[in-house]
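Structure Section — protein described below
Tokens — whole-number codes for backbone shape
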Amino acid sequence: MGFAISALLIFLLPLAYSPGPGNMIFAAMGARFGLAATWPASFGYHLATWAVTLTIGLGFGVATQAALGMAQVLQVIGAGYVMWLALGLWRAGAIRDGDGPPARPMGFGGGMVLLLFNPKAYVIIALMFTQFGAASGLGVVGITTVFTLNNMLAFALWAALGRWVARLWSHPDQAVLLNRGLAAMLAGVAIWMALA
């Protein structure tokens, strides 16, 4: 069983830790609000991850995947949501007391929405179950749990990286540039999601 978990983690390494919608959003939130502020959204995202992964693993995802156009609809909605987040980050500017309405990090519900409309997540989940099925000895619940905890670690690392970069760019003018740079990356992810 230890070998199966190691093999699964090696398989997931480039998929979970590479830049994607979730990682970029959590890096941006970590930069703007700090690591602790990302936890509610992370819990929402990963609760949804666990539920969706378990559902697909048990075979109920087949009906969703078979519905004509469902993947394309999720792709467009997800790309729109990420672009909306990118625009909000672009307009955020520097962090200043009393400067307009207070910015707030994404919460628990926003994290759930992010997973539900993240086509990269569905592709990774489907690919994972084609490679690591019942023969792995982990079972659907085991695979689902390892996958979810691994993703949670990846998001925490990206959020911490975002916070570290933000500290290097702490001057208000630099903060504006950082927010706009992260927003541009998120917009690029949204475009990639729409065209993939």
User: Anything to note?
Assistant: Residues 16 and 150 are 7 Å apart (CA to CA). The two ends are 35 Å apart (CA to CA).
